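Before relying on records like the one below, remember that each one covers exactly one chain. Contacts with other chains, cofactors or solvent are not represented anywhere in the record.
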Amino acid sequence: MIKNTENKDAQAQQETAAEKEQKVDKKAQKAAEKAEKAAEKENAKLNEKIAELEKELAAAKELAEKEKNDYLRLMADFENLRRHSAEDRINLIATASVDTIKGLLPVLDDCERAIEILSKSSDEAAKEGTNLIYNKLMAYLKTKGLEVIDAKGKKFDTDFHEAVAQFPVPEEDKKGLVFDVVTTGYTLNGNILRFAKVVVGI
């Protein structure tokens, strides 16, 4: 009888231990499920935050690219404006120079006529003074790019010469050549400023 009671107590203790173990397992399972749910929830929050940050990053990259393109376009526009301004300034200076030098050509013509007339005169002082003025003026204008078109005795060239008359010449090799220069022609920096008005031998 005592044995049976002991067996029953041992069995009851075993059942109680098994129940306790089962309860512990259930609690552990519930805790694990709870922790898993919490981790999933946290993971979802993190994924949401990552997606939000990626969206912000993409927007920031797009804005930076737009700003970069706007800056490059602005720099290109500024460079074009600067170049055009420089070209306009050079053209303005060149145009002003052309007009000024063109206005001085009649003075050179008058000096040449005076030198030609004075060559027949005995007034040495007048000859010397006129030559001095002409040479100084020519020297200054040459520094600005003015050059005399060499015409007399050269082959008639419509790029530099303008025929105002023809003159019969007996020599065959002088036909088509410039016989005389009526008005001196000039180039300015390689461009025609005034054609040389010439008489052509025929």
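The longest strand covers residues 161-167.
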